[in-house]
Amino acid sequence: MLIGELAERAGTSARTLRYYEEQGLVHPRRDANGYRQYDDAELRVVHEIRSLLAVGFGMDDIKPFVECLRTTGSGHVCPDSVAVLRRKLAEVDGLLAELTGLRQRLHTQLTQALAHRESPC
Question: Where do transmembrane segments lie in this chain (predicted)?
Fold first, then answer.
């Protein structure tokens, strides 16, 4: 399929696909006329990329998943992918801890404000 068809089927743009190619994530074949040709495997790769981006992974984080997908058929089973998942989970856990602390401080301030309020606003 040509780049326009892949873009349509993947729900993205040709520009985005060219960017993925520049990043080494998508590998089209080139026709004699220079047109990019993609097979269904590249569609699967683009779906994987988009799903990982949607949950907050960066482009550098995605590379191990794409390499793993190409070699094993699953992007999440290789040691490098597992390492990225562990790191990302630790990052999310840290953010949750920060948000929990912030929520507690806000709750305390609200409780104090309501307890010391003399008249309704």
Answer: none
